[in-house]
Request: fold
Amino acid sequence: MKLQIQDIHACHPSAPTGSAPAIRNMSLLINEGEQVALIGPSGAGKTTLLQLLACTLQPVQGSIQVQNQSPWALGKRKLQKLRGQLIIAPQVPPLPPRQRVITSVLAGRLPAMGFWQSLKSLFYPVDIPAAHAALAKLDLPEKIFERVDRLSGGERQRVGLARLFVSPAKLWLVDEPLSALDPIRARLAMSALTQTATETSTTLVCTLHQVDMALAFFKRIVGLRDGQIVFDLPTEKVTPAMLKSLYAQYEHELFSQPDQELIAKQFERSVPTVVVNNCR
Reply:
């Protein structure tokens, strides 16, 4: 799906009335099938931007086009149909604790199902092989019939990502998918995410705290700070100086252990050292 925003101002949905916009005067074009990483310090506006692209947050001013349609000019039914063509994966997936993993994964198909078919799928999963294959990409196939409340935080996060792989959506909006994963599984998840998006010609927009992972797996990097785009560049043109400026006063977020040698190695384009948040 093609995305375009022009001169957007938007407030975070939980912000009090009269708060300063979380997104200010932002314009961005993402073409169909592109894979884009959004980076920047906490409070930069990354999650708010995802909500705008998901048509769940209406801008205060400016225009947004999703697949050449203005979502907020559509009627309720047409807007719902447009939203059914995309899927958003939040950092903490909303998985019912007593639900089985297979049901949670196949929920990624609900927007394309009718009412009775979706109701039936709660009790009789419609495509066990597809759910198993999606979980296998994330090293989690043995959990297919487990209950969600018996999973660790990292396992739940991977179940949320597995939904993407069974969804018919052509736009994936993914928010901090690695926050609960160890380094090995973080790399596995990013590889599965980007490879599957490529194979299915799906547009992928992903927010990441792990800058090294963004540089390793994405060809285009958008740096955000204070609700504005600081740079929008092919990965090979992003320099250490740009990152230092983007994360000024937030250096602890750039790498968990600030290390000039690590930064230098990253830009040699060798196999990057994976640095992620601690599991929780």
Summary: Residues 256-280 have pLDDT under 50 and may be disordered. The radius of gyration is 19 Å. The CA atoms of residues 5 and 28 lie 5 Å apart.
